[in-house]
């Protein structure tokens, strides 16, 4: 699989499209020791399968770009838990970021290290106002409250997925206060305000909200350097554990 500098590839797979026994057999045998510890801490079988689905998707997709066998992948993690392929594997692996939620796994792959993706299941009822008040920036809270009550849950998940994608791209997790940056919306546009940085020091970001067709919110963020070309997206989906195909990609909103 070829990955040009100006492209980001989005890979998806659903638990409903794979055989649980085959997934367990293929993925569990290839986990590292720390991954096995995390797997064994999970109590519910669905959570265990989702964990394995993400690990399998990461390895099989990276193998698409490098030719390295699934069982040969080894990963290291930064202080905030962001993984990268271990040095000395003998391949030039692309950068990647993984997210999974409620039976779906999504992997973003690109040539830019500051890359983050997040998927959120929107069918779970949550106390939207209370969570937003605790974590969101004031301008996001006010914009959320201004919406009709029926529209607030979907906007909440849209914001949550965007903010998760941003902090994952930064590679610092919740060490970045969620109140320190804010997203604003127009019908087809996104604007990011990094309030903790001066306007002259703010980074150049491309962000997207992607249409899933189901009860999920999906967001992607990539930090670009001055002079970098805008990235274009391509999407692929595994329909089983051996075959994948490219699919059309629908963008709800973007920053460019």
Architecture overview:
- A 5-stranded mixed sheet has the order 4-5-1-11-12, covered by helices on one side. It has a 4-stranded antiparallel sheet with strand order 6-10-9-13, covered by helices on one side.
- The chain has one domain (7-254): Ribosomal Protein L22, Chain A, CATH 3.90.470.20.
- The chain has 6 helices and 13 strands.
- Helix 1 crosses helix 3.
- The protein has 256 residues and is of the alpha+beta class.
- The longest helix is centred in the N-terminal third of the chain and has 22 residues, at 45-66.
Strand content: 25-35%
Low-confidence stretches: none
Total strand segments = 13
Main beta-sheet strand count, sense and barrel state: 5 strands, mixed
Numbering strands along the chain, what is their spatial order in the largest sheet?
A: 4-5-1-11-12
CATH second-level architecture: Alpha-Beta Complex
Show the helix and strand layout.
Layout lengths: L6 E8 L5 H9 L4 H9 L3 H22 L8 E3 L5 E3 L9 E7 L2 E7 L4 E7 L6 H8 L2 H8 L6 H19 L11 E4 L4 E4 L10 E7 L5 E9 L7 E7 L5 E4 L3 E4 L2
Parallel strand pairs: 1-11
Antiparallel strand pairs: 1-5, 2-3, 4-5, 6-10, 7-8, 9-10, 9-13, 11-12
Helix pairs in contact: 1-3
Keywords for this structure?
256 residues, Ribosomal Protein L22, Chain A, five-stranded mixed β-sheet, 6 helices
